# Entry
Amino acid sequence: MVKMTIQSTVLVSLLASAPLLTSCTTVNTVERESPVGTRQMIPDKRVITDSTLNKKVSIVGLNEGTTNGGFLQVQIEVINRKNSMQDFSYRFEWFDMNGMLIDTPTSIWIPRQIEGQETLTITAVAPTTTAKDFRVKFIENVRKN
# Structure
């Protein structure tokens, strides 16, 4: 029978959990060389007020479509330009045919994380079929120690 001291038990525990303590800073990905689906990329207008966030996490492009039920669906591809994980939040605002903001409880800040050099797709579906346009906002999550 092996007799372990408290120090050796702690050391074994630390060594066993070492892979959990290390942080993955990049993500390896693979996809079709020639995609089957055709994206409906739309031109966008960007207003950058936080250049620090934009240097870390930025928008690659917007893809728009309609669900079978007639709801506007939007996908936004973002990229982490840094090698370390980044925290940010986003929220969608939806507008009707007259450009009026649709008041909805789903327009809340949603926190996300993105690994270093990773691309991420954010998908949102309008809360009503009367939504014909959208705006999405991004904000950097500031960690408080």
